[in-house]
C-alpha cells in the first residue's frame, strides 16, 4: 500500500498540501486499486479482484423490462427520492433478509449506495477520531479504509478456523477499556469472510453474541455473501439472533454491483441518525436503481438466479482447491471456503507475499498480498485468492503459475 505521505511533504507535487484535513493523512491508496492496472491485462490470470461474475444475467430480458419501467414509471424513477430509501425497496429488502432468518420492519432499513456506503454511515455516526473499532484479523480492505478515513483506532481480534475467537474479543475489550479507550463496535463478516473465506458456525455465532452482550459491545455484521453458499443452506445471521446487531446487506453479489444498492438494518434510534447522515451525504440513494432492482425482484426468478450463481461459483471454488492441491508445495496451507469468493493462502515460512507479487505478475498470475487486510502490517505470509471472476480452467492455470512461483522461490 502506498500512502499519500510523500505528496503531503512536497508542495511542488501538490500545491494544496496545507489545505487538507488531518483525516487524509490516514487515507491510503488501496493495494487492490494499484493492482487493477496490471491484473487486468488479458494474459494475467487475476486471482486479485473481487468482482462478481454477472455474465450470465439475462441482459436481453432485463433490457426489455427496464424499457417498460421507463415508460410506466420513468418520471418518478428519475426524480429525487426519500433519504431513507423508497418504501417499496425497503419492503423487498425485508423479504430478501428473511432468506437468512432476519425478521425486520421496513421502517428500520436505510438504503445506501452499496454496503460500502453503509459502512461509511455507521462509522460516521459512531466513531470519533481515536475511538476503537474492533475488526477480524484479517478484515475487508474497504472497511479498513473507511475506519481509517474517520481516524478510528483499528484493533484486530484473532480468528481460528471458525472465525472470531470469543475469548479474544473479551480480552481485547477488557484491556482496551482498562486503558481508557472507547471501543465503539466490533465489525465482523460471519459468512465467507473477505479475505479468508471463513464462516462462523452457528454455535460460534451464539458464543460471539453472548460475549458481546456481556460486554455491552455493539456488533456491526457485514453480510454481502451470505446467500452465496456452495455447501449447505445459508446460516442464520447474527442479527436473526439479536435485534441489537447492526446489519449491512447488499445486492452487489446476489444481483449486480453497478446499481450501487445496499442497506443498513439498525435499531430504531440508530436508524434515525443514519437517515440524517444519509441525507447529508447523498440527499437520497439512487432512485432509479431502486426502481430497477424492485423491477428485477418482481419480474424475474431471483432465487433461481442465486442458485445459478452458487453453481457457477462452486465450479470456480473447486478448480481453485484442486489447483492448489495439485500445485502448491506441502508447506503451504489454505482455507476451504463453503461459499463466497475467497481462499486465504498461507505461504511456507520465510516467504513474503508482497515481495513475491512482481514475480507472480511476471508469471502472469495476480493476487492480493495479505497485509492489505490488516491495519497493523501483519499478513506478509498470506495472500487472498479470489475465484469469482476467471473461468475454472483459467483459475486452475493460475494456481499452476502461482505454485511454480512459490516453488521456485523456495528453491532459491
Ligand atoms: N463488505 C464486504 C465484505 C465486501 O467484500 C464488499 C465488496 N467487495 C463490500 C462490503 C461493499 O460492497 P458493495 O458496496 O458493492 O455493496
From TrEMBL:
* Parts forming coiled coils: none
Query: What are the record keywords, sorted?
Result: Aminotransferase, Pyridoxal phosphate, Transferase
* Domain of life, source organism: Bacteria
A Pfam family this chain is assigned to:
Aminotran_1_2
Aminotransferase class I/classII large domain span: 74-398
Q: Which GO terms describe its molecular function?
A: pyridoxal phosphate binding; transaminase activity
Q: Which cofactor(s) does the record list?
A: pyridoxal 5'-phosphate
Biological process annotations from GO:
alpha-amino acid metabolic process
Q: Which family does it belong to?
A: Belongs to the class-I pyridoxal-phosphate-dependent aminotransferase family.
Q: How does it assemble?
A: Homodimer.
Protein name, as recorded: GntR family transcriptional regulator
List the source organism. Propioniciclava flava
Amino acid at each position: 500500500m502506498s500512502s499519500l505521505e510523500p505528496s503531503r511533504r512536497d508542495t511542488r507535487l501538490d500545491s494544496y498540501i496545507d489545505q487538507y484535513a488531518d483525516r487524509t493523512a490516514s487515507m491510503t491508496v488501496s493495494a487492490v486499486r494499484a493492482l487493477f492496472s496490471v491484473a487486468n491485462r488479458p494474459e494475467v490470470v487475476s486471482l486479485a479482484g473481487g468482482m462478481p461474475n454477472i455474465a450470465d444475467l439475462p441482459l436481453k430480458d432485463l433490457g426489455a423490462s427496464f424499457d417498460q419501467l421507463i415508460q410506466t414509471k420513468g418520471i418518478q424513477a428519475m426524480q429525487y427520492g426519500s433519504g431513507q430509501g423508497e418504501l417499496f425497496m425497503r419492503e423487498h429488502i425485508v423479504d430478501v433478509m428473511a432468506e437468512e432468518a432476519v425478521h425486520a420492519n421496513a421502517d428500520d432499513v436505510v438504503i445506501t449506495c452499496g454496503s460500502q456506503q453503509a459502512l461509511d454511515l455507521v462509522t460516521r455516526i459512531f466513531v470519533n477520531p481515536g475511538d476503537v473499532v474492533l475488526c477480524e484479523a484479517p478484515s475487508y480492505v474497504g472497511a479498513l479504509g473507511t475506519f481509517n478515513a474517520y481516524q478510528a483506532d483499528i484493533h484486530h481480534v484473532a480468528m481460528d478456523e471458525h472465525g472470531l475467537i470469543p475469548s479474544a474479543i473479551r480480552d481485547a475489550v477488557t484491556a482496551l477499556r482498562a486503558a481508557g479507550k472507547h471501543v465503539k463496535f466490533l465489525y465482523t463478516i460471519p459468512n465467507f469472510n473477505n479475505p479468508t473465506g471463513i464462516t462462523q458456525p452457528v454455535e460460534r455465532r451464539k458464543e460471539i453474541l453472548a460475549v458481546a452482550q456481556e460486554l455491552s459491545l455493539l456488533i456491526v455484521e457485514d453480510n454481502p455473501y451470505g446467500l452465496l453458499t456452495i455447501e449447505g443452506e445459508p446460516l442464520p445471521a447474527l442479527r436473526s439472533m439479536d435485534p441489537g446487531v447492526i446489519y449491512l446487506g447488499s445486492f452487489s453479489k446476489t444481483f449486480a454491483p453497478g446499481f450501487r444498492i445496499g442497506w443498513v438494518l439498525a435499531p430504531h434510534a440508530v436508524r434515525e441518525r443514519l437517515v440524517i447522515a444519509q441525507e447529508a451525504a447523498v440527499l437520497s440513494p439512487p432512485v432509479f436503481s431502486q426502481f430497477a432492482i424492485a423491477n428485477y425482484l418482481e419480474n424475474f426468478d431471483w432465487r433461481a438466479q442465486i442458485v445459478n450463481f452458487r453453481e457457477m461459483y462452486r465450479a470456480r471454488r473447486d478448480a481453485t482447491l484442486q489447483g492448489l492441491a495439485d500445485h502448491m508445495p506441502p508447506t503451504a496451507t489454505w482455507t476451504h471456503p463453503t461459499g463466497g469468493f475467497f481462499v486465504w493462502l498461507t505461504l511456507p515460512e520465510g516467504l513474503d507475499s508482497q515481495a513475491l507479487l512482481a514475480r507472480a505478475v511476471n508469471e502472469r498470475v495476480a493476487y492480493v498480498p495479505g497485509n492489505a487486510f490488516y491495519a497493523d502490517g501483519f499478513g506478509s505470509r498470506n495472500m487472498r485468492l479470489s475465484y469469482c471472476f476467471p473461468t475454472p480452467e483459467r483459475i486452475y492455470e493460475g494456481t499452476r503459475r502461482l505454485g511454480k512461483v512459490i516453488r521456485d522461490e523456495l528453491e532459491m
